[in-house]
Amino acid sequence: MESSELIAILREVREKVRARHPQGTAPGQIPLPDLLPLVHARDAALAKVASIGTVNPRPAGVVNAVIQGSKRLVARILDWHVREQVTFNRQLVECVNSTIEALNENNRAINQLAGLVADLSKHWAAWRGEWEEKLEQTEVQSLRSVAEQHAAFLEQGRRQAADFTKLLEKTAEQIRTESERLIHTELRLVRRRTALSPALAPPAKMADRSPASFDYGRFTERFRGTEEYVRTGQSVYLPYFVGRTNVLDLGCGRGEFLEMMRSAGVGSRGIDLNPECVARCRQKGLAAEAADLFAYMNEQPEASFDGIFCAQVVEHLPPERVPEMIRLAASRLAVGGVLAIETPNPECLAIFATHFYLDPGHARPIPYPLLVFYLEEFGIGRIEVRQLSPAADTVPSLASLPAEFREAFFGGLDYVVIGRKL
After folding, report:
1. Do 317 and 231 belong to one domain?
2. Fewer CB within 10 Å: N-end or C-end of the chain?
């Protein structure tokens, strides 16, 4: 009975050992020491220890009873002799148990450590993926930020360059204006000192477009064009007069320029010798009056206008009166005021074959260098010359001529000289 109980106890211990101490490998592929051989050796030792003092069973009978009794007697007699050995054996088994328990604790620690290492590896793998993704995003954002800053820097550089260019242009324009004003002033002083150019006598009567004995409105409609046509051609002058407050139109005709000024919110008025034209302007609600331009200009205060426009008028004047007319216009302009004079272009040969001699009031065409000279003489600077109404539009056959020849002798039918009071 004691042996069977001991065997049962040993089996229970073995199962507990196996349950408490896993064998094989720990998580993370760490090999654990196999303790089962040691456990088996201990169990065998425990069996031997447990069998000390027992008598081997024999078949029943008198002889067996005598033998068994003799063995038990001998065992009792020798008990004092083997007591120390039994104690040693039991303590040795206890040592083995302690060793097994220590090794089991070691296995459990290794197993836990391996589990922590495995968890750490999993977390490291997940964290590394996130870290690499964030690193890539950070790199992309950094590159994008650098690119945006570079683009912003270039854009700022372009804006600053554009502002600097505008500033240079403005400065150059101011320097040019001041230089031309200074040159004009010096020339006038020199002339006064040397008495090289006598003063022009006041005009007695203007030889401008006098009222015609025929229907001048019908004449203008046929040979100059419709009001819409003239208004479209004069649109090139709008940028020069926008923002001004007091503009005078010398020879306002049917009022196309005055209408354009009214539409742009520019204060303007006009004069013309032809009462029919003046009446037509007033019917449109335009400020116009019939007047001789020389008499009218002499009555106006100096520097009273910030813009003067004169289209298709100077070619009607006697050549000797043109400088006088420009002198009066320049004197009535405020500093910075605009003067624009439009007239037929004698450098375009087609003008003589088509338009110039159609108007019986035309006296003589004026080459643009001469008109520019007059403007410079009387304090008008920053002068521009623009050709208008290409002859090829009116005479299509000119398109067959070589371009260089056509530009030189058949350019614009009209031209305009635009300058500013210095």
Report:
1. yes
2. N
Does pTM top 0.85 for this prediction? no
Q: Are residues 114 and 238 in the same domain?
A: no
Q: What is the pLDDT of residues 28-77, one digit of tens each?
A: 556 666 666 777 776 777 666 666 656 566 666 676 777 777 777 776 77
Type of residue found at 411: G
- CA end-to-end span of the chain, whole Å? 139
Mapped onto helix, strand or coil, the DSSP state of residue 204 is coil
Q: In the sheet that 268-272 helps form, which strands lie side by side, from edge to edge?
A: 288-290, 268-272, 247-250, 305-311, 333-344, 412-421, 380-390
End residue of a domain, out of 115, 135, 155: 135
Distances (CA, A) of 142 to 136, 146, 154, 178: 10, 6, 18, 53
Residues with Cβ < 8 Å from 112, sequence gap 6 or more? none
Maximum pairwise Cα distance, the chain: 186
> Do 206 and 121 sit in the same domain of this protein?
no
Q: Coil, helix or strand for 201?
A: coil
Query: Helix 322-331 to helix 368-377 angle, to the nearest 10 degrees?
Result: 40
Separation between Cα atoms, residue 327 and residue 184, nearest integer Å: 13
